[in-house]
Amino acid sequence: MTGTAGSLLSGRAASPIMKLPLIDAIWRVRGEVLIDPALSPDEAFARLDPLLRTAGTTLNVAGSTLTYAKHNPAAQDKLATFTRGNMWVERVGAEAVLRFDLFSHALLLCFLAPLLFLGFAQLAIAINDWEKAGAEVSEKAKDDAKPKPVKKLNPVDEFLGAPAPEDPSKKKDKKKDEGRHSPDKGYFMAGLFALIYLVGRWLEPWLVRRRLRAALAGPPPAI
Q1: Edge to edge, what strands does the sheet with 28-35 contain?
Q2: Is the pTM of this model over 0.70?
Q3: More confident residue, 2 or 100
Q4: Which residues lie below 8 Å from residue 118, measured CB to CB, with a gap of 6+?
Q5: Which runs of consecutive H residues, i.e. helices, occur in the chain?
Q6: CATH number of the domain at 23-106+200-217, out of 3.30.9.10, 3.30.310.80, 3.40.640.10, 3.30.1490.150?
Q7: d(CA 13, CA 34)
Q8: What's the first-to-final CA gap in the chain, in angstroms?
Q9: What is the mean pLDDT of residues 143-165?
Q10: Which of 15, 28, 179, 186 has the highest local Cβ count within 10 Å?
């Protein structure tokens, strides 16, 4: 039973869709930060502990690798955008680097939101076309129908200046856009979320590097 579950999980982890670089880059951020070569992995993680150990965050350190996961992070959490990730220390010649591999559900949602709102905009256009076609059929049926006779005022009402009855064969002027479903809001929201995603995709990795660099350069935690 355990072997079967393990094979299923390994098969799921090896899914080719999740390994496509373009799809992976949507919500995944990788990078590295130079650290003091004299720092051991435990010492580096100890300096990162105040940054990572926030409400709703679970940490796990195994050797030179740190893994974390966040559940409903608070807005004050400096890493709230990246809900899970891995960090590890590597030696590169005489130097040492902290590498990170982080995942952001917020970036993924901002990437998908424009597609959703574009779908709403296209739906509004389709509804407008359907209503327009129905209105044209209805107007054509009215035009083909036998015209109703125009009522005439009696001489007394006409003498008193009463308005003449409306001609039923004449179409009433209506606002063309009344009752229509505008796709403009959908296009606006799609553009807004696309802008948020592009800014966040550049800004958030930069902020992560800055915060990690500041935490690692700080004084060692008190014992």
Answers
A1: 28-35, 95-103, 84-92, 65-70, 57-62
A2: no
A3: 100
A4: 186, 187, 190
A5: 2-13, 16-19, 21-27, 41-52, 105-144, 155-160, 184-217
A6: 3.30.310.80
A7: 30
A8: 45
A9: 60
A10: 186
